[in-house]
Amino acid sequence: MEKHLQNEEARKKFKELVEEIKVCMFITATQSDHEHTRPMYAVDVDREGSVWFFTDIRSIKVEEVTVERDVHLVFSHPGKESYMDVWGKASVNTDRALIKEKWNPMIKAWFPGGSDDPNVALLQVKPTNVYYWDTEAGKMVEFIKTIVGAITSNPKIAEGKEGKLVL
Description:
Layout: E1 5-6, H1 7-21, E2 23-29, E3 35-45, E4 51-56, H2 60-67, E5 70-77, E6 82-93, H3 96-102, E7 120-134, H4 139-152, E8 161-166
Parallel strand pairs: 1-8
Antiparallel strand pairs: 2-3, 2-5, 3-4, 4-7, 5-6, 6-7, 7-8
C-alpha cells in the first residue's frame, strides 16, 4: 500500500527507520564520473531530518563531498523487511562541541583516540528525496499473511507500506 508522509510524520518515520537499520551504503560521486560506495554507521538523525555520520577528515569521502555534495544513502534491513533510498546534500563539520555531543562509545571502535582525536569529523546529510518500503510487522507476520492471502485468494493482505517521505 502506498503511503506518502510529510513534515513531522515523515521525519518521525525517517528517524525510526534510520535508528532501526543504522548502517547504510553511503554513495558519493567521483571526479571520474564513477560512484564510490562504502558502508557507514548513522549516529544520529536530528529534528530537521539530517543524518549524521562520523568520519576521518583525511578520508576520500570527505574529499568527494567537498567537490560534489550530492550523495545517495541506501538503508536495508532484510530481516525486518525495511528499506529506504535517500538522496541528499552532504557537508563536513569539524565543530568539536558538536562532535562531543554526538559521540557515543560505539564510535571508539573506529576512533580509539576518542572525540578529541583531531582527525574526527562529522558528515551531515540533509535529505532531498526519500522513498521507503516497510512492512512494519516483520518478516514472520508478513509470511503468515502471504499464506493466508494465498489460501483466501486475497493477495493484498500481505502488503506492506511504501512511499515518499517529504521531510
